[in-house]
Amino acid sequence: xxxxxxxxxxxxxxxxxxxxxxxxxxxxxxxxxxxxxxxxxxxxxxxxxxxxxxxxxxxxxxxxxxxxxxxxxxxxxxxxxxxxxxxxxxxxxxxxxxxxxxxxxxxxxxxxxxxxxxxxxxxxxxxxxxxxxxxxxxxxxxxxxxxxxxxxxxxxxxxxxxxxxxxxxxxxxxxxxxxxxxxxxxxxxxxxxxxxxxxxxxxxxxxxxxxxxxxxxxxxxxxxxxxxxxxxxxxxxxxxxxxxxxxxxxxxxxxxxxxxxxxxxxxxxxxx
Amino acid sequence: xxxxxxxxxxxxxxxxxxxxxxxxxxxxxxxxxxxxxxxxxxxxxxxxxxxxxxxxxxxxxxxxxxxxxxxxxxxxxxxxxxxxxxxxxxxxxxxxxxxxxxxxxxxxxxxxxxxxxxxxxxxxxxxxxxxxxxxxxxxxxxxxxxxxxxxxxxxxxxxxxxxxxxxxxxxxxxxxxxxxxxxxxxxxxxxxxxxxxxxxxxxxxxxxxxxxxxxxxxxxxxxxxxxxxxxxxxxxxxxxxxxxxxxxxxxxxxxxxxxxxxxxxxxxxxxxxxxxxxxxxxxxxxxxxxxxxxxxxxxxxxxxxxxxxxxxxxxxxxxxxxxxxxxxxxxxxxxxxxxxxxxxxxxxxxxxxxxxxxxxxxxxxxxxxxxxxxxxxxxxxxxxxxxxxxxxxxxxxxxxxxxxxxxxx
Lengths: 272, 409
Prior knowledge:
The complex is a heterodimer.
Chain A: H1 4-22, H2 26-64, H3 69-86, E1 88-90, H4 96-118, H5 122-145, E2 149-151, H6 162-194, H7 200-213, H8 223-261
Antiparallel strand pairs in A: 1-2
Helix pairs in contact in A: 2-3, 2-4, 3-4, 3-6, 4-5, 7-8
Chain B: H1 2-38, E1 44-50, E2 58-64, E3 78-84, E4 92-98, E5 103-107, E6 125-131, E7 138-140, H2 159-180, H3 191-206, E8 210-215, H4 222-241, E9 245-249, H5 252-268, E10 280-282, H6 287-301, E11 305-311, H7 315-325, E12 329-334, H8 340-346, E13 349-352, H9 355-364, H10 367-395, H11 400-404
Parallel strand pairs in B: 8-9, 8-11, 9-10, 11-12, 12-13
Antiparallel strand pairs in B: 1-2, 2-5, 3-4, 3-6, 6-7
Helix pairs in contact in B: 2-10, 3-4, 4-5, 4-9, 6-7, 9-10
């Protein structure tokens, strides 16, 4: 029964989605959009589960003192800071000193709670428990009595918090750009491995790659012919192969969808 | 004195009115001359119909262009379309079509509160103005007979898709039934899938974990669903061999499903006590932050085997190259055409496109799943035959044949 109900739901909604594709009527569209809205609802709840999972895994690493546990501290502090900054914003001229005291107290409270989970000695547990309680109470008091800033839980003011913007624009974005830029070096190393002329096919690949790479180089001799040859390579053999793969993928998608709807494929429920 | 003043005022007024009366005919005459010379001919054969194959709230207006559009005075620059709920107006402008164009789709909103809302099953009246470069010089058409918009219950433009799906469904049904009856179905060996068992064995021997990456797809992507199936097989073997499994996920819904998949596989393998929920965890929904986290795991944990199955984008090479540097055996599979070359270069085994979807059938060897694989092969053969026939038909000018397969949205 535990599995029959999900299979029945998959069948009903799967069949509905197939027919919906052929029914353009407003009623059908309304039902389709209504069902898609559920993905957002489920996504929000799942995000909470996801954050909880990340928190649990990080705390576990710290607790077990695994290699790279320091990164878990960084993850948790980063997670906490961005949430704290994202839900708060100044109400006056500046955030003020009290805001930073509040941030420090909350951070101290989080670290104390993590230590509380990590230690096993009862004395140490008591001490970290006291520290977390004191910092929590102090943070609540600062939040109540400091009027320079406020919580914005339902509106997006927090996204304009200067600290949030600073961390996002000057820490997160450069780090992400750095990760992306690594791709250029990896492409070079992958190209080196791929284009080694080990056999006839690899040599053909190398020649094709050289032609395609020289496509926009006007200084090589016979640039016009190289451009024509590379365009032919891209538009005829390359495109033909791509189309063949796309047709296979399309059929594979339809087959998998049919198998899922008809209950033949059950691996997504762990029933392989 | 008073009378004199009154007579004087009357005289002036009379004089002014006569002057006005003198000048007006001159202006009227010039206007008549202008209209003859400048005003374009109106559009003709105006017709309006409900837009076919849609949800309603849309009308297609068609006309034959003005005689002065591309010929005659050649002064029409655009056509302005007006709509009203009543024959007597008022008419509101709903859009324009450039000169030379004889068609306009008045697509309204289905939202009642929107200003562009077009009610269904209600009389609508249309009028088209042929407009010159001077917007004041324009000629309206006759007002069209009323037309009503309505939504359709079947999109006739998608008939070829429906036929293809039905034929494919029928083929699948036939092959699944025949496989269930015990007919032997040959499936060609797929290197990447056969390597999965060896890779798990290698990880067990080395005492290192297996890293399974589901990609950046959501749980709604078919590639991710296929990946869940492969994960289920991998997790079952991992449970049997008592090897560690690490599944970092990009999407929280994917994480929840993957947790359930792995848990069920451990149960099926008879080792529920070995299952740890933490082995499937959420990392982030930022693409390159996810890459950084997974690369970090590769370089800290040194997994013996990395399996990449699902939807991948720019991160494919970043992950696969790092895995290669870490010395892991790598098996990948994706339906993203642009990422397949990267995986081929950096991984030991790659499932190309549809092989990702065939993997579950290949691993399970269940007749029902193998039957659907056969149906895929037959459908591919049909596509090849139709492509050749289409090529020949197009070259001989028999264009009705390619038109049979045209899907109109």
